[in-house]
Amino acid sequence: MANDLVASMVLAIWLYLVAARGGFWRAAERDDETLSWPGPAGEQWPAVTAVIPARDEAACVGDTIASLLRQNYPGEFAVILVDDQSRDATARLAHEAAAALGLGDRLTVLPGRALPAGWTGKLWAQQQGVALAERAPRQPAYLLLTDADIVYAPDALVQLVGRAQRGGFVLTSLMAKLRCTSFAERMFVPAFIFFFQMLYPFAWANDPRRATAAAAGGCMLVRRDALADAGGFLAIRDALIDDCALAKLLKRRGPISMALTERVHSIRAYPAVGDIRRMVSRTAYAQLRYSPLLLAGTICGLALTYLAPVALAVFADGVAQFVGIFVWLLMALVFRPTLRFYRLSWLWAPALPAIAAMYMAFTIDSAYQHARGRGGMWKGRAQGNISEQSNVSEKSNISELR
Question: Pick from 242, 230, 38: which is nearest to 121 by CA?
């Protein structure tokens, strides 16, 4: 009787996910087509400024800067890199990359100021970069909020702006294609994208009638006036999952767009399982709003969704066993489009339950790190639940920036 009950619940969960969760598993929202925005005759392309927060990014920043400065964008385009008190050669390598292309005048490296209480490091760096862009003689129409490990195809910015202009989007985000070379990356990266789309179905995020909002922080083209009208980064200053917080903020101002892409890549390496664990642990408990109750519910839900079908297939009999086998095959089948996107063998598909079990462990570790006072650890900073910290110095920092 217990097995039959579990089997019924498992079957209901997966029928819902496959049939009524925005078709997330098809990975169909992409920017594969080539778009352009001709505009009225003689109309100029809007000015764009890229803002890159960078802390200890010497390994990647040169490639990022070079790919941005190589954009074939016909409008005004400038790059601001905010050196967030790096302890390596981030600033020097950024300058060298621009100088090697003879485009040093298009890059500004802004030394970042000390992190005030109540802010996450990335949002504080972005705030400083945007404030500098707004002081330019001609304020940009769009801000390209990107990371120091992201590289762009030469036509990426043209396509982003074309998409934004045609759709009237206040936020146009592309999920950068993550590096998928090491064994750990092949095991965990496609599943990460699969789970992200399950949590935030792109079709729902792109639907103005739905509240679901999502963005990928590596590549977000934002209308500057919409960001200012929404309160800017000040409104989400303590958000650890800053990209989705920004998407939620901006969707109240207008339509947003989210898609997978082959034009934008992350070159950050995750060579070992421990690197993936640290990446997930940094934000998983924040996603659960630091709630032990939500953590327990999430673990139970993941176990029921991913582990119970395997247990039924192996240990049950009769109808319950048949349901377990059917659901295990079904989840493998719906995982395949994401594996194809990453050009990986379908043989990874049956391993999804085991991969999900590892992500459950990473989530528990995230809660453990938070309890140790090391939540949200990034480049030597623990930023978990900083909303509980004092923000006495906040107003003075913002007023000086403006």
Answer: 242
SS3 string, 111-130, reads: ECCCCCCCCCHHHHHHHHHH
Which H, E and C letters describe 263-301, residue by residue?
A: EEEECCCCCCHHHHHHHHHCCHHHHCCCCHHHHHHHHHH
- Residue 395 in domain: no
- Give the pLDDT confidence of 71-126 residue by residue, as tens digits: 999 999 999 999 999 999 999 999 999 999 999 999 999 999 999 999 999 999 99
Q: Are residues 246 and 126 in the same domain?
A: yes
In whole angstroms, what is the distance from residue 342 CA to residue 338 CA? 7
**Domain tally, the chain:** 2
* pTM metric for this prediction: 0.91
Q: How far does Cα 157 stand from its chain's mean position? A: 18
Among 271, 296, 318, which residue terminates a domain?
271
Whether residues 107 and 212 share a domain: the answer is yes
Q: What is the pLDDT of residues 286-317, one digit of tens each?
A: 888 889 999 999 999 999 999 999 999 999 99
Is residue 384 a part of any domain in this protein?
no
Give the gyration radius of the chain's Cα atoms. Answer: 22
What phi-psi label fits residue 289: left (phi over 0), alpha (psi between -120 and 50 degrees) or beta? left
Could you tell me if 295 and 333 lie in one domain?
yes
Statement to judge: residues 113 and 49 lie in one domain: yes
Confidence at residue 395, expressed as pLDDT on a 0 to 100 scale: 42
Q: Compute the distance between CA of residue 186 and CA of residue 323 in angstroms, rounded to an integer.
A: 28
User: What CATH number corresponds to the domain at position 160?
Assistant: 3.90.550.10
How far apart are the C-alpha atoms of 127 and 228, rounded to whole Å?
Answer: 11
Q: What percent of the chain stands above pLDDT 90?
A: 83
pLDDT in tens, 324-335: 999 999 999 999
The 8-class DSSP code of residue 349 comes to: G
Domain that holds residue 340: 2-24+278-371
Domain endpoint, select from 271, 301, 317: 271
C-alpha dihedral, 200 to 203 to 207 to 210, nearest 10°: -40
